[in-house]
Write a structure and sequence with these properties.
By secondary structure, the chain is α/β, with parallel strands linked by helices. The chain is built from four helices and five strands, in the order ααβββαβαβ. Strands 1-2-3-4-5 form a five-stranded mixed sheet, sandwiched between helices. β1 and β2 form a beta hairpin. It is globular, with a radius of gyration of 15 Å.
């Protein structure tokens, strides 16, 4: 059985490394989605493009950004580039909470018997900045990650 979460960690680490080298920017949510898609195809033997679904939809639940064989669901969020982001964290947090609930419902409603922990991935790149997450936002994301660790794997970067 493929180790989807190990592949995710490797891909995420590679994205962060390339970000810090100035070779990957991840300007849009779709950039991160495409990088993950490609990374899974390269790392997981026996995985074909038909096994990955971008914008997978379940009736009545909504869509998730990336699904692998209906066993791993990944929701991707791109943080705002605006400097006032910290002031708007509470509003974003409400939206994030809804997405985490959606991931939980996806796992509950899939027909696959071997569902992995769903992943909530947050990518932050502000325009014209090479730094990733700063201290205050990093603390907020860590708190969010701890809150949901029983049901959802929260990954974020670049760190």
């Amino acid at each position: 059985m493929a180790d989807y979460l190990k592949a995710l960690k490797d891909i995420w680490d590679e994205m962060e490394k390339l970000f810090h080298q100035g070779k990957f920017h991840g300007e849009q949510e779709g950039d991160v989605q495409a990088y993950l898609y490609h990374g899974f195809l390269l790392r997981l033997k026996g995985l074909a493009p038909k096994d990955l679904r971008m914008e997978k939809t379940f009736d009545g639940i909504g869509r998730v950004d990336l699904s692998i064989r209906d066993k791993l669901f990944i929701e991707i969020k791109k943080l705002s580039r605006k400097k006032s982001y910290h002031e708007r964290w509470d509003g974003k947090l409400k939206a994030f909470e809804k997405d985490v609930d959606k991931l939980k419902r996806y796992c509950k409603n899939t027909k696959s018997r071997r569902v992995r922990t769903p992943v909530f991935a947050i990518w932050n790149r502000r325009a014209n900045q090479k730094i990733g997450l700063d201290g205050e936002l990093l603390n907020k994301l860590e708190k969010f990650k701890r809150k949901h660790k029983k049901h959802v794997l929260v990954v974020y970067g670049p760190k």
